[in-house]
Design goal:
single chain; 334 residues; mainly beta; 3 domains; 6-stranded mixed sheet; 9% helix; disordered N terminus; cell membrane; Ig-like_fold; immunoglobulin domain
């Protein structure tokens, strides 16, 4: 749609000096809403045109006190709106919903009132940041993956202690959005693995720590968890990589599963887990997964419950009973 199709626009353009503002930049997240800012000097008979530059595709138009969308570009239908209650105050900002990769580019905001007109330009860049990195180990294969990323991500591995690792990487795209996955063969059980995925602006890491063995001879113990820097956003404890013991989100109280509710005595600030009333049925692998906004740490502990030398309650009962018979025998002799 040529702008001259709007009579009000044509008259204003020929009468008033246009003020230009070029060079502002904005980063929008894919599939989220994004506000493209634009302001003007308030006045009567407001005209607003948002235009994709340099294609001249109409994005959103407003005049005669209402939206004028008959010539709106097909890609923008149902995705744009103005803040109409703020137009009288000079706000011509555009709300763009469900941001797409194709929205990347330059946009022109043209505003006009009886007091003058103005053009401003804004450069839009789009991204889908790395929000979560999953790392898991099955037998001797350790895998790191993440989905829904833009622009093209990069994945790197590191180990502690340092070692040479060879990985197989898979990269796929769905509507220009990237999914990335990398696997490597773990030849040593004595290594900690860290995977980092970045896409330029943001990086996230996930670490998998080698299992440690814990032998206990009583029915209560505390299992360690590698703490992340605060604030912690998520904590999950599992048993044998299948049973959920508990989970916790942010500062909310933890929620234990019905099976483990009576066995969980406490969750420490560090994420360490204290269990009670343990038996040989609870031998196995305990995994702590702790996350914040930048990283995930997975700690594994192998717990072995050793037979106690005696049940404290049973021993106490025997002592009391022996004392009873000792007193009875003494009285009988008298």
């Amino acid at each position: 749609m040529a702008l001259t199709k709007c009579p009000v626009f044509a008259v204003v353009l020929s009468t008033f000096l246009t003020t230009f503002n070029r060079g502002d930049a904005k980063v929008c997240h894919i599939m989220e809403s994004c506000i493209l800012p634009c302001s003007f000097k308030p006045g009567d008979d407001a005209v607003i045109h948002w235009i994709e530059d340099p294609s001249k595709t109409p994005v959103h138009s407003y005049y005669h006190n209402q939206d004028q969308l008959a010539h709106q570009g097909p890609r923008y239908i149902g995705r744009t709106s103005l803040f109409k209650d703020q137009i009288s105050r000079g706000n011509a900002s555009l709300l763009l919903r469900r941001t797409e990769v194709q929205d990347k580019g330059t946009y022109k905001c043209y505003t006009s009132t009886i007091t003058g007109n103005r053009e401003s330009f804004i450069n839009i860049d789009v991204e889908a940041p790395v929000r979560e990195v999953n790392i898991q180990k099955k037998e001797n294969i350790i895998t790191c993956s993440s989905e829904g990323i833009y622009p093209k991500p990069k994945l790197t591995w590191s180990t502690n202690p340092p070692s040479n690792v060879t990985n197989k990487e898979e990269l796929e795209t769905v509507q220009q959005i990237y999914n990335i996955k990398s696997s490597l063969v773990s030849d040593s059980v004595a290594l900690d693995y860290t995977c980092t995925i970045s896409n330029g602006r943001r990086a996230r890491t996930a670490s998998w720590y080698k299992p440690t063995s814990i032998n206990v001879s009583n029915t209560e113990t505390t299992i360690p968890c590698k703490a992340t820097d605060p604030p912690r956003t998520r904590l999950v404890w599992t048993f044998n990589q299948s049973q959920i013991i508990l989970n916790q989100t942010g500062d909310s109280p933890y929620t234990a599963s019905e099976t483990w509710e009576k066995l969980v005595k406490a969750v420490l600030e560090s994420g360490d887990l204290t269990l009670q009333y343990l038996s040989s049925d609870h031998d196995g692998m305990y995994t702590c997964e702790q996350s914040n906004d930048e990283e995930t740490r997975i700690t594994n502990s192998i717990l072995r419950i050793e037979n106690s030398s005696g049940n404290p309650a049973l021993i106490a009962g025997i002592v009391v009973e022996l004392q009873y018979y000792k007193t009875l025998f003494k009285n009988w002799r008298i």
